[in-house]
Amino acid sequence: MAETLAISVPTVLDATRGRLTKKMCDDRLESWSAHVVDHLRMAIEVRGRENFDRAATYLVMSNHQSHYDVPVLFHVLGPPHGQSLRMIAKIELFSLPFFGRAMLEAGFVAIDRKSRRSAIESLDVAKQRMRSGVNVWIAPEGTRSPTGELLPFKKGGFHLALDVGEPILPVTVQGTRLALPRGASRSTRDASVRVTIHPPIDTARYDRTPKGIAALQETVRTAIASAL
What we know:
This protein is an alpha/beta fold. Helices cover 42% and strands 15% of the residues. It has helices spanning 2-16, 22-39, 69-77, 99-106, 116-131, 156-164, 176-179, 210-225; strands at residues 43-47, 59-62, 85-90, 109-111, 135-138, 168-174, 192-197. Helix 4 (99-106) links the parallel strand 3 (85-90) and strand 4 (109-111). Helix 1 crosses helix 4 (99-106) and helix 5 (116-131) packs parallel to helix 6 (156-164).
């Protein structure tokens, strides 16, 4: 919380003064994620780094085991390893003092899954981010898994992938539940975390029919599940 507040407050202040830039946000997210990982003494093993082209634009899709998936993936996939990375997050987070405003100003995308119209508008914002060369990350499960097993996937991210036409980068995160499982209030240090980056999936091979969407979902799900 202290690390998050330390980057949220100056981000809000810089935005208010009209001097916030994407690079400033990237630098703060890089520093924040590194400090969180170091503070928890996480041992992170990255597999499949060769599948990640730092010059490409991806829709990143991963499983979701813990709140610590967020700093871990920014640490592994964000600058300096690749282009800017922003996430699609539930709208409730954007109402938190300082943190929510900082997320909004930094280019994160809020999604309200209870409102179809709002969700569609959020995906349009995500399209704009990707078209400007920003990697966008979404957890297709929509929430953290209480057991670590994959939950059913939501379809919104797959429509976004087909609309934008950029490849999906499936990523498997394993071990963050050891640091903070869903429902826990205290973090645990020294967790061993493995991040597996799978080969990108070319969305041009799939169409917008229900059958095409289902096939794309299954392809991504199979890739993510293969490293659990």
